[in-house]
Amino acid sequence: MEEILYIEVPISDTASVCQWLQQNWQIDPNHKKLTTQGLRLQFPNTQGELSIFLWSVQNTTYLKVFRWGKFPVPFARRLAQNLKSSLQHQFPLTYPEPPQIDLSQESIFSALQEHYPKTVHFFQKIPNGEAALTRVYWWEQRWREEARNPQQPKTVVKRTEVEPESSPEYDLIYVGGALGVIQAAVMARRGYRVLLMERLPFGRMNREWNISRQEFQALIDLGLFTESEFETVIAREYKDGYNKFFDGNNPPDLKGDVLHTPTVLNIALDSEKVLALCGEKLQGFGGEIWDETEFREANVSKTAVTVDCQHLPSDTSKTATGRLLIDAMGSASPIAWQLNADRAFDSVCPTVGATIKSGFPPGVWDSDYGDVLNSHGDISRGRQLIWELFPAAEEELTFYLFHYHQVHPQNPGSLLEMYEDFFTILPEYRRCNMEDLQWKKATFGYIPGHFSVGKRDRAVAFDRLLALGDAASLQSPLVFTGFGSLIRNLDRLTTLLDTALKHDLLEAEHLNQVRAYQSNVAVTWLFSKGMMVPTGKTLPPQRINSMLNTFFGLLANEPPEVADTFIKDRAGWGLFNRLALKAAWMNPALIAWIWEQAGAKDFFRWVGSYLSFTFDSIISFLFRGWFPQWLKNNQSWLEKRYPSLWLKGLSFSYALSTGMGNPNHYKQ
């Protein structure tokens, strides 16, 4: 027996594919022998046959062709290629769009029922499900609009010659109350007048947060949390975390062992408690919170920034003036799109999921363990779907389903399509009866990324404006999203921001020093690119799982500290090169695959990233042993006489350590 063909047919209706195969495929019907899952092709003049069968998983259809007996191989392959072309013509990959709806005329449930029946059914069971599904729809429409018109973004930040009549009311105005409130509370603790605006009721989160003790220590070191307060916001601490990708269709040399990561994302936080505590601290330090308030635009003058916003419940306009505006609106930020025009974001992870209180049969999952990264099938409708499972308090389990995705005008990435898949395939991933599950809340969002060639190829600042978190594409290409990246860089960002405010260095040229760029992270964006299916292309279904199993299998065979270092974005130049060369040795096809998926343009862009990483590594090697201490020894006169030079020096000092994945608060 020999496998001749393995393809995905991007349609969930496997029965229709089977019917077409048996009745409409243009081949002599005398050769066909129908089976329940496909057909057999028998030819009188040969001593063999072709077996074609279909199956369904991940809400899509797969097909394989096997050769049996002494069948002429060239003839078999020609037939298989004919079948492949015919299937691609009959069942092309499409990119559905949500319907245009008017919620003043009907509910979100009735508007989406026809298009996303499972999503509507289960959101009706989720507390505040109508509001949550409305936000899913709003976020997708916002994302699609920006992705389709990247070169003509809406202008929401404007310059003005008109100065406010009085001095600014606030030193800092944060827009975005999830990641924003963390740094807002830290800055309020330092004595700054802080205002936080949030579009939703404050404290409502569409995600949960996981981190390690080592990383959360940054918040303790900054004085925002005490060690005892940290313990109160822990929902669960795991003994171990698993990383394993489906390899049922991979050859033996491209299968991978389970990678154990006991100290990666092993602390499940109660995000609502974290937000509530940060909000209390912010207000306790004199800060203000305007929730259910939507940002409209900002007008920047020489002395202040004036923010116009809308209080949603009362539909009234409000205005606030500050010295500096912080954009923490994430991927929905119109400011990020304006600042970076056609390259606001290069990639995105459309992410959906839910926190489920109970309902899984005994033995389905041990809550002492997390499933950090997992796939249970191959490419599905142009996406390699990846699961995360994080137990929380009591019986609660938080699930995420996501994929790495190219930002493309015709295919921006859909949360609603993902949710329809989520509610369909969750029982495939973890055995359950969907109707028995007790839901707590929906978790969803777009997590953006930027493929940096150097530290200056993305604008994170404007005069009196600075981007933070996802709005600044502060994201790791592996398991860390905006939260983990922010926490790892919070000391750096806070110190630099404090310095800029202290010396009134609030023009764009100075604020661009306040960034969390990591050269060792920037070079890994090709890894993200390798997990994407380019829009309009089809790949062998097992391709991405083969790549993931190569690399994670490699890490599984390394000492545990190597995987911990790499996944936590702390790998230096030597370790990065050793692992990359070892992966290429284990799987020589890897480079050709990446070239095919990334294309020549992005591949050579990555070469630029690699050369930048190499240069930064050399500079770090030459300077990190003496420059930070020299800078500290000369702070008293340098900061006083040349504050802008001091800020640049401080930024450079952080780039030598944190910027290379070696922040001081990490234990070595």
Task: Describe, in plain words, how this protein is organized in 3D.
- This protein is 38% helix and 22% strand.
- By secondary structure, it is of the alpha+beta class.
- The relative contact order is 0.11.
- It is globular.
- The protein is built from 22 helices and 25 strands.
- Among the domains are: 2-90, 2-Layer Sandwich (TATA-Binding Protein); 110-147 and 345-449, no CATH class.
- Strands 6, 7, 8, 14, 15, 16, 17, 24 and 25 form a nine-stranded mixed sheet that branches.
- The chain starts with a strand and ends in an 11-residue tail after the last helix.
- Helix 12 (482-502) runs antiparallel to helix 22 and helix 21 (635-641) crosses helix 22 (643-657).
Record field, number of beta strands:
25
Distance between the termini: 53 Å
Structural class estimated from helices and strands: alpha+beta
Give me the number of helical elements.
22
**Biggest sheet features:** 9 strands, mixed
Query: What overall form do the CA principal axes indicate?
Result: globular
Helix content: 25-40%
Rounded to an integer in angstroms, the radius of gyration calculated over CA atoms is 26 Å
The pLDDT mean sits at 91
- The portion of residues forming beta strands comes to 15-25%
> Which stretches of 5+ consecutive residues score pLDDT under 50?
none
Protein name: Flavin-dependent dehydrogenase
Organism: Dactylococcopsis salina (strain PCC 8305)
